[in-house]
Structures are given as structure tokens and as C-alpha cells.
Amino acid sequence: MALVDAQYKFKFLYVDIGSYGHCADGGVFNSCSLSAALEADSALEDDCKLPEIDIICPFVIVADDALAMKRHIVKPYSGRNLSTKQQTTD
Q1: How many separate domains does the chain show?
Q2: N or C: which end of the chain has fewer CB within 10 A?
Q3: 88 inside domain
Q4: Would you say residue 83 lies in a domain?
Q5: pLDDT at position 83
Q6: What is the pLDDT of residue 89?
Q7: Distance between CA 71 and CA 59 in Å, rounded?
Q8: How far is CA 60 from CA 22, 41, 74, 88, 90, in A?
Q9: From CA 36, how far away is CA 90, in angstroms rounded?
Q10: Which residues contact 18 (CB under 8 A, 6 or more apart)?
Q11: Roughly how many angstroms between the first and final C-alpha of the chain, as a whole number?
């Protein structure tokens, strides 16, 4: 399990290599110290105002489908089960 920087600095912010390769990613994440720190709200910076607008948002981690959505974990839209019209609309 690894967490990298969003500013293209190519550095790891967190690495956990304590699980076996056959373990599911969701289970590995749930048992790592990063998951516990996120639950305790101590892993990421405080919520901040978005540039040029007055909306307060939390810092988030963009994850894949293996992890559950939570306050600090978001997943890209999968685009599954779309109709042909939905797939071809801009």
C-alpha cells in the first residue's frame, strides 16, 4: 500500500509493505496505520477553502475500486453500466 504526492514530486508519502501479496487491497488498507490515522482525522491537513471561491473542502485520497468511499477517500467515476447515449455524450 502506498500513497504518493499529487504535485508530481515523485515521492512516497506513505508505504506499508507488511501484508502478503494474496491479500485483498481493501483488507490491506483497513489494517494499515494510514487507515487508522484517516479515521482519527490526523493523517491529512485540515479542510481548506478552494482557490477563488468560498467552498471549504477536505483533502482527499483518490483511490481505486478496492477501497470503500469515506470522507477522505474518493474514487474516479467508473463509467460502468452506461447506455450507449451516455457513453457518447460529451
Answers
A1: 1
A2: C
A3: no
A4: no
A5: 84
A6: 67
A7: 9
A8: 27, 11, 7, 29, 26
A9: 39
A10: 32
A11: 35
Q: How far apart are CA 59 and CA 62, in angstroms?
A: 10
Digit-coded pLDDT (tens) for 72-88: 888 887 777 888 887 77
User: pLDDT class for 90, splitting at 50, 70, 90?
Assistant: low
Residue 89 domain-assigned (yes or no): no
On whether residue 15 sits in a domain, the answer given is: yes
3-class DSSP state of 34: helix
In a 3-state reduction of DSSP, which class is residue 36? Answer: helix
Range of the domain at 53: 2-77
CB atoms within 10 A of CB 60: 13
- Give the model confidence (pLDDT) of 1-34 as tens digits: 788 877 777 788 888 887 777 777 788 888 888 8
